[in-house]
Design a protein that fits this description.
Layout lengths: L4 E3 L3 H10 L1 E5 L7 H10 L3 E4 L3 E6 L4 E4 L5 E5 L2 E6 L5 E8 L3 E2 L2 E5 H6 L3 H9 L2 E2 L16 E2 L2 E3 L5 E3 L14 H19 L12 E5 L3 E5 L2 E2 L1 E11 L3
Parallel strand pairs: 1-2
Antiparallel strand pairs: 2-15, 3-18, 4-18, 5-16, 6-7, 8-15, 8-18, 9-17, 10-16, 11-12, 13-14
Length: about 240
């Protein structure tokens, strides 16, 4: 999909994000501090939670495939449980701090439209079958001990659709339909890999902020040479 580039604080930025699920904000300082500023400008008083920003630095990085940002991380700080990530973060902001010398182009896909175009039985699986969303990451430090059960396509109680994409999905423990689930997940992976090759690429400038409706859009980037650095912040709004 084509992503509009709009100056930060321009009302058209919110319109573009609402219309297509993605927008690139320009004109902000190249600093992690621009992430909460951009979030406040876009969402105002509907902001509910901002999670700690994280820096990702990759050297000669491989392809990062289409995905929606989601993770379930609760840590204990001085005896108090503190949530640092949420599995249903509804917006993600990515600031390009340092562009790679070569490669690293971004791509974004309207996941609602894509999954609606799949074969009926695969659509039925995505909307009707519970999986462990992070089961293939079992043992990763910080993940919950209990399975995170959900479906790839769900709706919030206010009717907002979520179309998930994670490479951690696995059958539920002792699910009698495990073989079927594994087969359908493999088919889903193949469909995503195929569409990823056709999605238009675009380049971010240093300091640009890519903002995504994390319920609607998946994103990724191509392989690159040299060093590439981004700052990422996820948020939840009242709509979540």
């Amino acid at each position: 999909m084509t992503v509009a580039r709009v100056p930060a604080f321009d009302p058209a930025a919110r319109e573009a994000l609402t219309g297509t699920g993605a927008v690139v904000l320009t004109g902000l300082p190249n600093s992690p501090g621009s992430l909460p500023v951009a979030a406040a400008s876009l969402f105002g008083t509907s902001l509910r939670e901002l999670y700690p920003y994280r820096t990702r630095r990759s050297v000669d990085g491989g392809v990062v495939g289409l995905h929606a940002d989601s993770f379930d991380v609760v840590v204990d700080i001085a005896g108090k449980p503190v949530r640092r990530r949420h599995p249903d973060e509804d917006y993600v902001l990515v600031l390009l701090a340092a562009a790679a010398p070569g490669g690293g182009e971004s791509f974004v896909l309207d996941a609602h439209a894509f999954t609606d175009s799949l074969a009926p039985d695969l659509r039925e699986f995505l909307a009707g079958s519970d999986v462990d969303l992070y089961g293939r990451w079992a043992g990763t430090r910080g993940l919950p001990a209990a399975p995170r059960v959900g479906r790839h396509i769900e709706h919030t109680r206010t009717g907002r659709r979520i179309t998930r994409r994670t490479d951690g999905a696995a059958p539920l423990h002792r699910d009698p339909d495990s073989e079927h689930v594994i087969a359908m997940l493999a088919r889903f992976d193949d469909e995503v890999a195929a569409v990823q090759e056709t999605v238009p690429r675009f380049s971010l400038g240093e300091g640009d902020v890519l903002v995504l409706d994390n319920y609607r859009c998946w994103h990724g980037r191509d392989a690159h040479t040299g060093v590439r650095t981004v700052h990422i912040q996820t948020v939840r709004t009242d709509d979540a």
